[in-house]
Amino acid sequence: MNETEVIELCRTSIVTLVMVCGPILVIMMAVGTVISIFQAVTQISEQTLAMVPESRRNDAAVSAVQAMLDLAEQAKAVGPVAELERKVADNPLDHQARFDLAVALNAAGKRTEAAGHLIEIVRRDRKWQDDGARKKLVQLFEAWGPADDATVEGRKRLSTVLFS
After folding, report:
1. Is there a single domain that holds both residue 88 and residue 153?
2. What gap in Å lies between CA 81 and CA 63, rounded to an integer?
């Protein structure tokens, strides 16, 4: 093996390594960037809320932002959506898994699905966790705002379950 062949072998190895590892590294960098942006926005929002005067803390907009921050914090702890969906599929009566799935779906922007799972808990067992599913729905509605389509539809569906 001469010097040219060794250099060509090294070049080919490096190109192969970049082609194999490159996509994985790009995905990891993108995920890391999204996570860091989310953390920065959350931290800025928390700091901004801390500066709101006490007399304005009960305003609807401030309450909505606080509810969004609380929901985002809770979503960090529930786990991946796919795993939670599997748990619910395996045991539809696992209300905690369904509740966690609703929190995760909300964080993923799937508001209607999140509300649907919470309404299903209310339908099956209203008293579960001291009326926890209904209370979480109210928190979601507050975060989404009263004019949001998912809020309007969710309130209708919840009323149907509660008053039927």
Report:
1. yes
2. 27
Q: How many domains does the structure of the chain reveal?
A: 2
Instruction: Report which of 109, 105, 107, 18 is spatially closest to residue 119, judged by C-alpha positions.
Output: 105
Structure tokens at 1: 């093996």
User: Do 145 and 106 have their domain in common?
Assistant: yes
At 130, which helix (H) or strand (E)? none
Question: One digit per residue, pLDDT tens: the chain, 164 residues?
Answer: 788 988 999 899 999 988 888 888 888 888 878 777 766 665 655 666 566 676 766 666 666 666 666 666 666 667 788 888 999 999 999 999 999 999 888 888 898 999 999 999 999 998 999 999 999 899 889 888 888 899 999 999 999 998 87
Cβ neighbours for 35, distance < 8 A, ≥ 6 positions apart: none
Provide the domain limits for residue 110.
54-164
